[in-house]
Design brief:
Blueprint (H helix, E strand, L loop, with lengths): L8 H7 L7 H33 L6 H23 L4 E2 L2 E2 H10 L2 H28 L6 H16 L8 H14 L5 H29 L10
Helix pairs in contact: 1-2, 2-5, 2-6, 5-6, 5-8, 6-7, 7-8
């Protein structure tokens, strides 16, 4: 998943750690988790982007971006209803399979996953704000959160690979926080620290388990 756009390889990487009979289920669950996380990012990011665009002059042409996003959502809705009538399959997985699987998951679990995604998002956002305070950046909480949520929103809609994520977030963060009068070097240091703490260190620790993992030859009882 480190070398694939938007961590697409993460689906296959997680699936191989389970028995063959469970791999499709694991991929569906992974898809659900990622969709919940993206939904959280879009909700908070859209709100932050709207307020940021209203308070500061963005060269990103907020109106055009908003129109493009609305058009994209409409296209997705139309595509959904069109594909709904088509028996579309990839590697034996159809849209009906996905709908049936999602419906089988209880509402309680869906709500719990959404809450976990929200908590994760808030932790990452507050971590960025906490680092701003450590670097003695004089900026109020509301303004900082508008910039942070906008940064995550814009960087999430850009296709990238995880190992280059720091470059994308760094560029977007420098652009946004420069409007708030924050030094570019300070923002780059914060983004780099976020990348090291949340990606590099966990990856180094996790690589030990990846290299030593051996798939059981016999299916374990469920």
């Amino acid at each position: 998943s480190l070398f694939t756009p938007n961590r697409i390889g993460d689906y296959g990487a997680k699936a191989i750690y389970f028995q063959k009979s469970l791999r499709k289920k694991i991929m569906f669950l992974n898809l659900m988790g990622n969709m919940m996380q993206m939904t959280t990012t879009l909700i908070f990011g859209s709100i932050g982007f709207l307020f940021f665009a209203l308070h500061f002059s963005l060269e990103l042409e907020a109106v055009k971006i908003s129109i493009s996003m609305i058009a994209f959502v409409l296209i997705l809705i139309v595509a959904f209803f069109v594909l709904k009538e088509i028996q579309f399959k990839v590697k034996g997985i159809s849209l009906n399979n996905i709908r049936t699987f999602v419906r089988a998951i209880s509402l309680q679990i869906k709500v719990k996953v959404f809450l976990y995604s929200t908590i994760r998002y808030l932790i990452f956002s507050y971590q960025f704000y906490f680092l701003l305070m450590i670097f003695d950046v004089n900026i109020d909480y509301v303004t900082a959160m508008m910039a942070i949520t906008t940064m995550y929103f814009l960087s999430s809609i850009l296709p990238t690979i995880v190992i280059l994520d720091v470059l994308i977030k760094g560029s977007v963060a420098v652009y946004l926080f420069s409007m708030l009068g924050v030094n570019d070097l300070t923002i780059l240091c914060i983004v780099t620290l976020m990348w090291l703490l949340n990606f590099v260190i966990p990856s180094v620790i996790g690589s030990y388990y990846v290299l030593n993992f051996r798939l059981p030859k016999v299916n374990a009882p469920i």
